[in-house]
Amino acid sequence: MVERPAPAEPAGPLRLVHHFDARRGPFRSLSALPPDEARRVTRELASREPGLLGERTEAYVDRRRELERLARAAFVAQGGTPRAPFPQYMVVEPCAWLAGWYARPAAVECGSDAFEPGVLSFTYGDLFPTFSPHVRDGREYRGRVYTLDGIRELLGRIGTPQRWNADGRHGPERYVEVQVWEDAATVLSRTRPLVPGPGTPSGTAT
Fold this sequence. Notes:
This protein is an alpha+beta fold and 206 residues long. The chain contains seven helices and six strands. It starts with 14 loop residues before the first strand and ends in a 13-residue tail after the last strand.
């Protein structure tokens, strides 16, 4: 059994962070590209990027689109009102592991109050392990999409994965993923460079 800290429900807006490679810029989504172009970009990343970005295959593109459709439908069923066909991605709180994906890490941030609740959905962990048929540990957040109120309640009980699973030894969930259902320009306009502070990954401020 994983021992987790005893957090309280977050007070005030959640801190939303977008990590990215400074060479390419923020909110560059494969889902914004035609499928063939997205596969070509994925092949290029696999050929030149070290680490996790380099491990993605062309099948990643099709699975990603499938999961985004699933997440969108689940969110709408709970009253969500997405304004875009696919999301822009952020996480709750800075994540050193995620920053480490990039050769030139950078990040922007904003509070959850920068958006209407109806365009913010959440998964406890990345969409891929959340809906993976291979992850069958029975944890309550597997296969679930949360609203803002729902994720706040969950975080009040178990905290973020960065606090109890920073090294990944306790499961595939390394952060709380935020799906922002707005276009990239709108999302970027609500953010600011990440302000370094306690627990902020080094080298992530722009």
